[in-house]
Write a structure and sequence with these properties.
The complex is a heterodimer of chains A (340) and B (134). Chain A has 2 helices and 22 strands. Chain A is mainly beta. Chain B is built from 6 helices and 5 strands. Chain B has a 5-stranded mixed beta sheet with strand order 3-2-1-4-5. Chain B starts with a helix and ends with a helix. Classes of the chains: A mainly beta (340), B alpha+beta (134). At the A-B interface, loops of A face helix 2, helix 5 and helix 6 of B.
Chain lengths: 340, 134
């Protein structure tokens, strides 16, 4: 497993963005669950073209945490704050650093302007899986995910400090060329049991058009301990989103975007159901969002529009049978809904 | 001494013109012929369009929309501690003018935010605005 990680989860930007910068994006994403709270950490690189026509890689670090409510920051850095190691396994952005190790990842967070600091060791306990060249509007994105890791460390946002010791976590790494605001939307989710003793980990993805009326691709991946147990293809998966969550976003980031994304109405379903049946395996997952944060991204297609990523936390009940073994647990979920 | 809000706005508009010219032109388009007079903690200035965004010190001879607010209220909005509707209802942002002119001023604000979030220079200007807050 470790050799697979080391070979596959390296940074693509120095090769791909240099060869063809137009529209290139890459990000490393981590979700860490702890009973009653969770954190999201994201290191991203976006190729941007200046008015003069020169391209640059803009690094950003996103850290958001949910305890009673979502809070956090998006910090944009200058290209001069960016460093990628020769082995493509260490990404440094200012005082922040993400290292791909043989057995997982080490993440150091230091965003002094926002009073956010932390150190996390994320040790892979499941085999990674890669999905290549998925269409996103007129572009393509590839991604690699590790359904479950073990998290140890700490994170402090302002006066709030969270400590992690053997907690469960999820990771994905995405790269490709596409434009925010193009004709696509997505729903992506990770469901993990509350404790390490339960063997199941789930990852769900649904790609749609911008208006979320047409499903272009969907899949449900189920891992048992460190191995894939079932991969439900698009035709085997059915989704049903019911109602609307009756609460406003806990926070909007970057904060000035609240001037544009004003209002209290929610786009988040009250309940999301994913049902899958394939080759004798049956699975049903019901995710109930509790609250959400909005991460706004300027549209690259329209100068007067934004793309909004809603990060929701909630509980998920999972039941079914895989390879004849029954599944029944209540876990923690984080679902991301992208509205273009 | 803290930099005046009019000076920060002047610098901000200049950066938008250089860094995101297409978005800058959308701001000009939204503002059109409207002149907006702004009072921030007693500092009076006006914003007008045309070929370029112009920030002029002092009261405007003729203004279609008048906004009265404070540096603290502006930061509360930019830090998302309050929404614009809440600020107007609470009186921390006062707006006067005909409905058409107030709507035009609001459309200009939205266009300005869309431009500012695309321009790399703006976070430093926001930090400068913060240094003058009480």
């Amino acid at each position: 497993m470790t050799a697979v990680l080391a070979r596959s989860d390296f940074l693509r930007a120095p090769l791909l963005a240099t060869a063809k910068p137009d529209g290139f994006k890459e990000w490393y994403h981590f979700v860490v669950h702890r009973p009653g709270s969770r954190i999201l950490i994201n290191f991203s690189l976006t190729s941007e073209v200046s008015h003069a026509g020169s391209s640059r890689l803009t690094p950003r670090v996103i850290v958001i945490a949910h305890d009673q409510r979502w809070t956090g920051a998006i910090e944009r850095f200058d290209e001069s704050d960016l460093d990628v190691s020769a082995g493509l396994g260490v990404l440094t952005v200012g005082g922040n650093q993400m290292t791909v190790r043989p057995d997982g990842y080490r993440v150091v967070i230091d965003v002094p302007g926002q009073d956010i600091r932390g150190e996390l060791d994320l040790t892979s306990v499941s085999r990674p899986f890669a999905v290549n060249n998925q269409p996103v509007g007129d572009g393509r994105v590839s991604w690699l995910f590790v359904p479950r890791l073990r998290a140890d460390g700490w994170l402090r946002i302002g006066r709030q400090e969270m400590r992690f010791e053997g907690n469960v976590a999820y990771h994905d790494h995405n790269w490709g060329r596409f434009r925010w605001g193009d004709d696509f939307g997505w729903t992506w989710g990770t469901i993990l049991p509350s404790g390490p003793e339960m063997p199941w980990s789930l990852v769900f993805q649904q790609m749609t058009d911008r208006r979320r009326l047409r499903c272009l691709y969907q899949a449900l991946w189920v891992w048992r301990y460190d191995e894939p147990a079932a991969i439900f293809p698009p035709a085997a998966v059915q989704t049903r989103f019911r109602g609307m969550l009756g609460r406003a976003a806990d926070c909007t980031l970057p904060p000035p975007m609240r001037l544009i994304l004003d209002g209290e109405a929610s786009d988040i379903p009250e309940r999301m159901e994913v049902a899958a049946t394939w080759a004798g395996d049956v699975l049903h997952a019901e995710f109930r969002p509790q609250s959400y944060a909005r991460l706004a991204q300027p549209s690259e297609v329209r100068l007067d529009r934004s793309v909004v990523l809603c990060e929701t936390n909630g509980t998920a009940r999972v039941s079914g049978s895989i390879n004849g073994e029954g599944i029944d647990f209540v876990g923690a979920g984080v679902f991301e809904l992208l509205y273009g | 001494m803290a930099e005046q809000v009019s000076s920060l706005l002047r610098r901000s508009a200049g950066h938008l013109e250089d860094e995101v010219p297409d978005s800058y032109h959308l701001v000009l388009e939204a503002l059109g012929p409207l002149v907006v007079e702004v009072d921030v903690d007693g500092e009076l200035f006006s914003l007008r369009g045309g070929r370029r965004l112009e920030v002029a010190d002092g009261a405007a001879a003729v203004a279609g929309a008048r906004i009265a607010t404070s540096r603290t209220a502006i930061l509360d909005l930019l830090d998302a501690r309050v929404g614009l509707d809440e600020a107007v209802q609470a009186g921390t942002v006062g707006v006067r003018g005909s409905v058409d002119d107030v709507l035009r001023a609001h459309d200009t604000l939205l266009a300005y935010v869309h431009a500012a979030v695309r321009a790399p220079s703006q976070p430093a200007l926001l930090a400068a605005l913060r240094t003058g807050a009480p």
